[in-house]
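A protein record pairs a chain with a discrete description of its three-dimensional fold. The following entry can be read in just this way:
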Amino acid sequence: MARWMIEKAKEQIKWIPTPGEAHVDDVEFSGYGCSDIVTYGTDEAGELILTHHPVFPTLRRRPNDTHASFQLDIPALSVYVDGEEAPETVDKVTIGGGFLTIYTKSGNLSITRRFFPSAKKRASYEQITVDHPSGCKVTVHHPALGKVDELMGPMGVCIAELSFEAEPGDTTSKFNVMYSGRYANEPTPENTADADLEARIARYKELTAPMTMSTGDRVYDTLFHFAKLRAGESVFDTKFGKVHSPGGYSYYAATWCNDQVEYAGPYFAYTGDPALLEASMNAYRMYIPFMSDSYSPIPSSVIAEGLDYWNGVGDRGDAAMYLYGASRFVLTCGREDWARELLPAIQWCAEYCRRKKNELGVIESDTDELENRFSSGKMNLNTSCLALAGYRYASILCRELGLCDCADEYKAAADDLAIAIDQVFGKNIHGYDTYAYHEGCEVLRSWICMPLCAGLTNRAEGTAAALTSGYLFRPEGMLTTEENNTIWDRSTLYALRGLYIAGESTKASECLHIYSENRLLGERVPYPVEAYPEGGRRHLSGESALYCKIFTEGLLKLEPTGLRSFTLCPTLPDGVDHLYMTGIHAHGGVFDVLVEKDSYTVRLSDGTVVAGGTVGEASAVTL
């Protein structure tokens, strides 16, 4: 049963606690200088539970490693009336518009708390508004006003501070509370809550305006809208420039070959957002200095604002991730200058993968993106399928740039890999004609979806049946491996996309709606999550990008065929009679895809129709 409900489609969800209901959750909001993870909820008496956890990615601790962002828990301020603390009972909680808002009661007081990050500063805000009887003296209190914490970091003393400005009134009093961070030689940021509120609203609109989706299904439309925000907001100003990072208490001012290079970059290419495109290019640029003539593995992550790296589990197939992500990104952006800039890195990764091809014709790696949490053998589907897709996109790119011999070489490599993947990994498991995730694997794994995402369909029916069977599928998502309760949303989201790509719409639609309703309105809201039980279902930003890709790459089946050209083959989720995606920025243009029950149209932003067809049939488009 859903705990939350949609209050306004595409905009806001709400939770109204029932008497005796104890529930706690958290939600992360990010700006260029700060993330704030707000933990909120009620105890059994209905009283408010509230804690801030600001994270300052560019205030660094020692050792300056992956997890070195300066961060801390700060209990929320209490409201006092005539000198007495006012315990608050929660009436309603809403998430929407870029904010978390909590409505409480305390006697004859009505209290509203609104939370949001500064768009640019190392600061986050809580705006407290108290409606009270005339003559009451209302104040807020915290035992650690001013300096909350400080520590010596590798680049200076990091200081966290808490301040507020009061705007008392006869019947309404307002308090602008700021949680900020700085180095010791910097001034305390000015508390400009109202201006920062407007900046947050402006950035929210920028991030959610592109690719406006309407299906008539309130769950799909609302979760897609929310996912666009979470995917896009987790960008930070660093020494390297703008850097997209996963977030989730741990991963800031750093980039990963899976989360940023493979997941987010190809999705951001459709948004046209300058900050997201810059952050994506920076992610690809950060790895280039590690691509040497010795062909040692590139790092899994470039950390600490680009000053260091992490490769603690060896080669995860990171070059295959880069080959796929960078090739698809530059093709979708349609910018020849970026294509030529990244081409040497793409070619390096293609050569690295060639050197890792074994005698069976598939690509070896030390592990995969799950980093030895589960077995991956010496060769796995994830690495080989990403290399396959990467070779195909790299071939298209090279042909666009006039490198025909290189294009032919990469196409041949992709064709050979497609055959080898089927021969090496094809296997009947529990009666399903599907794949073994790695050599010797005798159980079903959710990552058997990867061949579907790479366009391999000869085992699509059996693989779809296996993924949606009781061995793997749960309302929470797909099990990483059968007979284990661990769920990683990333493989679930890849699987849903792959099912649509393979034409298994009926199976995909049933699972997609269950999953979407659970993530938007269930116990852990309102975004896709990383993993469970590991990591406490953190709201990492890359998973939200993967959710959006179900619609752009799965249902619409957008596929780049050149810098200025693409194909699409739309389908509809079961129970939905239309899908309108407007404001897609790609291949040098801005266009809409309007899918009806039986037909679809591709329309430029000026109204010109450039393609159309029957649902389920492909069209080629050149802009």
User: Anything to note?
Assistant: The first helix runs from residue 193 to 208. The two ends are 46 Å apart (CA to CA). The chain has a mean pLDDT of 97.
